[in-house]
Amino acid sequence: MSHRPGDRVPAEVRDALAIGLAVGVFGVAFGVLAVANGLSALQACAMSALVFTGASQFAAVGVIGAGGSVPAALGSALLLAARNGVYGLSVARFLPPGRFRRLGSAQLVIDESTALAVAQPDEPTARRAFFAGGLSVFVCWNLGTAVGALGGGLLGDPATLGLDAAFPAGFVALLLPLLRDPGRRAAAIAGAVIAAVCLPFTSPGVPILMAALGVLPVLALERRGRPSA
Amino acid sequence: MSWTALLVLAAGAYGCKALGVFVGSRWSDEGVAARATLLLPPALLAALVVVQTFSSGSLFTLDARVAGVAAGAVAAWLGRSFVTVIVLAAAVTAALRALG
Fold first, then answer.
1. How high is the pLDDT of residue A196?
2. Cys bridge to A133: A79, A116, A141, A196, which one at CB 3.0-4.6 A?
3. Whole-prediction pTM
4. Statement to judge: residues A124 and A138 lie in one domain
5. How far apart are CA A188 and CA A184, in angstroms?
6. Do A173 and B53 touch (CB under 8 A)?
7. Nearest CB to B44; choose among A93, A159, A191
8. Is residue A133 domain-resident?
9. Containing structural domain, residue A228
C-alpha cells in the first residue's frame, strides 16, 4: 500500500460518501414529491428515517398521489422492500455480534450498503464498507428529504443530472470483482436474465425477488461437483 | 397518508430487513446455506442493474441511461475508480438528455 495523502481515506469509505451524495439528491426529490402528494413535511421526514428504503418510499407516495388506496400503496412499497430481507441473509455475517447491535444494524440493510460490503475482499473491510455505506446513505437521504420537504426542489430533477444512471453503473463496478468466482458469475447472469424476463410482466420489485431463484441451479450444479459456469 | 399507514409501512420494511438478518445469523458458515449467501448478492445486484438501466415502471425502455451505464461499465472494467465510474455514467446520461 502506498501512503499518498489521498489514501488516508480508505477506498470503501470514499465510495460510500460518493454514493451518499448521489442518494442525497434523490432524497430532495423524494421530499418534494411526498409533500406534493399530500404528506406533511414531518411525515416525509419520518418516512425516510423509519422506512429507509428509497424505491419503496417513492412507490408509496406515488400510489397515494395517483389516487390509489392505502393498501395498494403499502403493497407496492412492501414488494420493493422485500429484497432487503434477502440482502439481510447475506450481510448478517458482517454485522457485529450481539442481538441489539444486529437489530439496530438491520435498518441499514439496503441496496447500497449490501453492494459495498459484498464487493470487499475481507470481512473487516466489508463490515466497514457496510456501515460507511449505510450511514452515509442514511444521513444524506434524510437530510435530502428534509431539504426537499421544507424548501422545495432546489436541485431540480435528479434525472437531468443523469443520476439515475449513476446507481446501476456503480453497482456494475461493485459487482465486477465478484464475477471472478464462476459460481457467483453464473448467479449474476441468471439473476439478470430472470429480471429481464420478469420485468414486463410483474409489478416493480418482483423481478429482483425472482432473481434470487437464479442461485438454485448454480447450487444444484455445484452440489453435483460440476463446473458451474 | 395517515400516520398509522406510515408506521405500518415502517414496521413492514424494517421487518423484512430484521427477518433476513435474524435468519442469516443462524445459518452456519458451511454448507449450502452459506454458499447461497455468497451467490444471492450477485444475483440480486445484477437484476437491480437490469431494472435500473432498462425499466420505467413495468416497461422495458431504451434511453440515455443505457449509454451512461455502458460508459460507466467500461470505465469500471478498465479499473477506474468508483467515483469516476458513477460521475462518468451520470455525465454521459445528462449530456445525451441535454442534447435531446
1. 96
2. A116
3. 0.92
4. yes
5. 6
6. no
7. A191
8. yes
9. 181-229
> How many Cβ contacts (< 8 angstroms) between chains A and B?
313
Phi, psi of B60, deg, nearest 5: -85, 120
Are B20 and A87 within 8 A, CB to CB?
Answer: yes
The answer to whether B42 and A188 have CB atoms below 8 angstroms apart is yes
**Nine-digit cell string for A226:** 460440476
The percent of residues in chain A predicted with pLDDT above 70, rounded, is: 93
Indicate if the pLDDT at residue A221 is higher than 80.
yes
C-alpha cell at A109: 440493510
Compute CA A25 distance to the chain's CA centroid, rounded to the nearest angstrom: 15
Q: Which helix (H) or strand (E) holds B36?
A: helix B31-54
Global ipTM: 0.95
For chain A, what is the domain count?
Answer: 2
C-alpha A120/C-alpha B90 separation (Å) is: 24
Mutate to test the interface with A, among B7, B29, B39 (most CBs of A within 10 A): B39
Same domain, A164 and A186: no
pLDDT tens-digit series, residues A177-212 = 999 999 999 999 999 999 999 999 999 999 999 999
Chain-centroid distance, C-alpha B68: 16
Grid cell, residue B70, equals: 455502458
